[in-house]
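Encode chain A's predicted structure.
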Amino acid sequence: MKELYVTVLFQPIWNLLVWLYTTIPGRDIGLAIIALTVLVRIILWPFQQSALRSQRALQDLQPKLRAVQEQHKDDRAALGKATMDLYAREKVSPFSSCLPLLIQFPFLIALYQVLNEGLTKANFDLLYPFIASPGSIDPTSFGLVNLAKASLPLAVLAGIAQFVQTKMLPMHTPPPGAGAGAKDEDRLARVNKQMLYLMPAFTVFIGASLPGGLTLYWFVTTLVAIFQQWLFLRNHTKRVSALAPPA
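Encoded structure for chain A:
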C-alpha cells in the first residue's frame, strides 16, 4: 500500500517540485512552491467548485428547512422524513459538499509530505530519469526566509488570508421571531462566527511550528481559494439577479 501511495501520489508531486525548482530562473524554492501550489489548485479546481456549489445550495435551502422544522417540531420521525423529502425534491445532498473534499484529501497529504521532506531529506532517488537532479535544494527563498525552518511572518500572513477566506463565506442567520425551528440554525450561525476568529488563530499557531515551505503553501493555497470563492460568489450573484423577476 505504501509503495502504491509513493508511486501514484508522492513521486509525481516530488518530481514536479524538483522540475519547477530547476526550471524557474534563480532556483528559488519559494517560487517553485508557489508555482506548485497554483498548479495543484488548478488541478483540484473542479472538485473545490463542486464543494462551493453544494455549500451554497445548502445555505439557500435554509429557509425551507426552517419551515419544515416549524411544521414538524413536535414529531421527530415526521421531521426526519420531511427533511429527506425536501433534500430529494430540491436535488440537494447534505453530504455533497464533503465528497469533493474527501477526494482531495490523499492528494493534499502527499503534497504535505513532499514539502515537509523535500527541504530536509531530499529523495532524489525517486526522480524520474528525465528529471535532472539538482544535487541539493537551497531552502532559502528570496534571499530572506529559510523555508526549512518555522517562519512566524509567513504564519501570520497565512492567518490573515484564512480570516479573509472565512469572512467571505455567507453566514445565514435566521430572522428574528423565526420560531423554535430556527434554534439549530441560530446555534450553527454562532459557531460560524466563532470560527471566523478561531480558524485564523489556529492557522497562525500551527503555521508557526511548521517548516516555512509548508506555511508558504498554506498561504498561497488560501489566496487561490479566496480568488475562486470570489469568482463563484460573483457569478452566483449574477445568476440570481438574472433570474429575479423585474421590479
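The radius of gyration is 22 Å.
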